[in-house]
Design goal:
heterodimer, A: 122 residues, mainly alpha, B: 185 residues, Rna Polymerase Sigma Factor, Chain: A, 2 domains, 74% helix
Chain lengths: 122, 185
């Protein structure tokens, strides 16, 4: 059944102007043993695998996106520099004073918590 | 331009792209149609073909500095990236290939009767299904041969095999396809 169908399609494909792929005359798809003719198969493959192009909008958009990525690649790298010494001194001093302040607040709260509560006599 | 000139020209383009990523655009324009075509015939629909084509070129751009000319054309490298991405795509999704109605044999409309059109569409669908059941290497061979129109020697360069091996693989592939179609009947 399929072999007969292949005979049919090889004729219809050969007679069509399917993207200009089939200018060849139709050949019988069946050999004497009823198997599929490889030549007809190759012809059908040319049709099934006819070149397909991407949509123009897709091409343009992808080109644009790739260019953006390429620009990022091409831009000079940002190098992190160590801060100058005097700035480091400021940073260390600020950190220490903050730590002392926090310690003082914690100590004050701890003392408040530890004081005995004065009860009012009735 | 001779083959040797073509190769030298391409070498220059690759070197430029390695030095200046913005020059990659020339290589993109040169190969986007072929890579898209290859991926489309492997996955069967435009949506995934666009996604995988984009991923192929993003990957190529990010690794262009590592590309080393080993005598194969630049397209071989791109095809390998595309081939691997398609293999991952198949692994991650179901094997069933959904082919949209607009991918059927629309060029026949107006030239044949509706019945003949439907029958031709059915046969093309059967053939595509049979193609997608072949191994990835055999599918690649068929696409490069019938869609890109490459010679056995050119296909051999892309697939990393000798011309003789490609010829042999081609004949085995047609036989395998023949068996697939007979099995389907």
């Amino acid at each position: 059944m399929l072999a007969k169908k292949w005979a049919g399609i090889s004729l219809s494909l050969a007679s069509s102007t399917w993207r200009g792929q089939f200018a060849e005359p139709a050949r019988p798809a069946l050999d004497g043993e009823g198997t599929i003719n490889l030549e007809a198969l190759a012809t059908a493959l040319r049709g099934a695998l006819a070149p397909v192009s991407p949509a123009p909008e897709f091409r343009i958009e992808l080109a644009r996106d790739l260019a953006a990525v390429a620009r990022q690649k091409a831009s000079p790298r940002v190098i992190l520099q160590r801060p100058p010494r005097y700035r480091r001194g400021f940073i260390i001093g600020a950190a220490l004073s903050s730590a002392v302040s926090v310690a003082g607040i914690i100590a004050y709260l701890w003392r408040q918590h530890s004081r005995p509560v004065m009860r009012q006599s009735m | 331009m001779t083959v040797a000139d073509e190769g030298a020209h391409e070498e220059g383009l690759i070197r430029q792209a390695q030095e200046d990523p913005l020059a990659f655009g020339v290589l993109y324009e040169r190969y986007v149609d072929r890579i898209y075509n290859y991926i489309y015939h492997r996955v069967g629909n435009h949506h995934d073909a666009e996604d995988l084509t984009a991923r192929t070129f993003y990957r190529a751009l990010s690794h262009i500095e590592r590309y080393v000319d080993r005598g194969a054309p630049f397209s071989a490298w791109l095809y390998r990236i595309a081939h691997n991405l398609v293999a991952n795509w198949h692994r991650d999704r179901a094997r069933r290939q959904a082919i949209a109605l607009d991918d059927s044999i629309s060029p026949l409309v107006g030239q044949v009767t509706p019945h003949e059109h439907a029958e031709a569409a059915e046969q093309a669908e059967a053939l595509r299904r049979a193609i997608h059941r072949l191994s990835p290497d055999r599918q690649q061979l068929l696409i490069l041969k019938f869609s890109d129109g490459l010679s056995n020697a050119e296909i051999g360069q892309i697939m990393g095999r000798s011309e003789g091996a490609i010829k042999s693989l081609y004949h085995r592939t047609l036989q395998a396809l023949q068996e697939e179609l007979q099995r389907e009947s």
